[in-house]
Specification:
It is a single chain. By secondary structure, this protein is of the alpha/beta class. It has a single domain, classed as 3-Layer(aba) Sandwich (Rossmann fold). It has 13 helices and 14 strands. Strands 3-2-1-4-5-7-11 form a seven-stranded parallel β-sheet, with helices on both faces. A three-stranded mixed β-sheet has the order 8-10-12. Helix 1 packs across helix 6 and helix 8 crosses helix 10. The longest helix has 21 residues.
């Protein structure tokens, strides 16, 4: 298939694109370029691409496209909290507009990168299936809920949206991030010797390796239509639900000499949920996740050693999405609506 990957230059996108190409698909990228130069100094294989804001997609951009893998978004709670309306504009309204254009252009599958964060809080309810109540606690999570609702209404006999509710991602990527939980804990341990937790560590988080997310997208792309049409799939593994303090203990075992530090011991995180991943395991047999938190922590630690990451670098704009956006704004490269300025375009 010819697949348009939005956000192809991001944390997940730079892992997804090679997976799709290795499977024989023709990939076109679309990305506004906020994170160019971020992450690890690794050469990316070039593909046809459009440097374009997701809010500015035109019908011609979708000509000849069979499927869209829609990753582009303000990508986590801290970044989403920067401006709640802007988060809805990009993550919700621009997503729905893109889907309308895709359906009109004859795109048959629309793979939407959603999130388990929409469950919000529900650890007391046991393991949450795709039919559980949605309790978004942040603008980011709300944007995903509203996008799913509107995309679902567009489904018809030709257009099949599918909602990949990813657990919290982790693992090495060319566009490595420090602002997701396991990556962050390994980064603290590597650069300071302390596994630093900013809460009491009791909240539950399901986690999934970025490579397993990529293979979930591939499975949704290639599975029979009736298996994925207008359906949600929690993306992860049942055994990979952890309390944050359990992740810290894993990291402590991986990084020699590291100690666990509770910097917010009296600050419980209200975002706490355990997620059931049975549906994707049973109904999309092509999805075969291979990673565990321990293996991911070891992979991250090796990469940080190889690239000699230090504390200043790891917690700066190169690896933290909110810090990068704030840097672009401070430099005058983007305005308050996250539009590239004339000065930055001219440069």
């Amino acid at each position: 298939m010819r697949v348009l990957v939005t956000g192809h230059s991001g944390y997940i996108g730079t892992v997804l694109v090679p997976v799709l190409r290795a499977a024989g698909h023709d990939v076109v990228g679309l990305d506004t370029g906020f994170y160019a130069g971020c992450g690890l100094p690794r050469q990316l294989e070039p593909i046809p691409e459009l440097q374009k804001d997701i809010r500015d997609v035109e019908p011609a951009d979708l000509a000849g496209v069979d499927a869209v893998a829609h990753l582009a978004a303000l990508c986590n709670d801290p970044l989403g909290n920067l401006d709640a309306d802007l988060t809805l504009e990009i993550n919700y309204r621009a997503t729905v507009r893109l889907a309308h254009l895709a359906r009109a252009a004859g795109v048959r599958r629309f793979l939407f990168a959603s999130s388990c964060s929409m469950y919000g809080t529900g650890s007391e309810d046991g393991f949450l299936t795709e039919d559980a109540s949605l309790r978004p606690l942040t603008p980011y999570a709300e944007s995903k809920v509203r996008a799913e609702e509107d995309l679902s209404r567009l489904a018809d006999h030709d257009f099949s949206p599918v909602f990949l509710r990813n657990a919290t991602a982790y693992g090495v990527s060319p566009r490595l991030r420090a602002d997701v939980v396991l990556n962050n804990l390994v980064g603290w341990a590597h650069t300071t010797g302390k596994v630093r937790i900013l809460s009491d560590g009791m909240s539950w988080r399901p986690i999934v390796h970025v490579e397993d997310i990529a293979h979930a997208f591939l499975a949704c792309l290639e599975s029979p239509r009736e298996a994925i049409h207008n359906r949600a799939f929690n993306v992860g593994v049942n055994a990979e639900n952890y309390r944050v303090r359990e992740l810290a203990q894993i990291v402590q075992k991986v990084v020699p000499g590291a100690t666990v530090e509770y910097a917010g011991q009296n600050n419980p995180d209200p975002r706490s949920y355990r997620v059931d991943f049975t549906r994707i395991q049973q109904e999309l047999p092509a999805f075969k996740p291979t990673w565990t938190a321990r293996a991911g922590a070891e992979q991250l630690y090796r990469a940080m050693q190889v690239h000699a990451l230090n504390s200043e670098t790891f917690h700066g704009p190169r690896f933290v999405r909110l810090a990068q956006i704030r840097q672009l704004m401070a430099d005058g490269a983007v305005d308050g609506r996250l539009r590239w300025t004339k000065a930055s375009v001219a440069a």
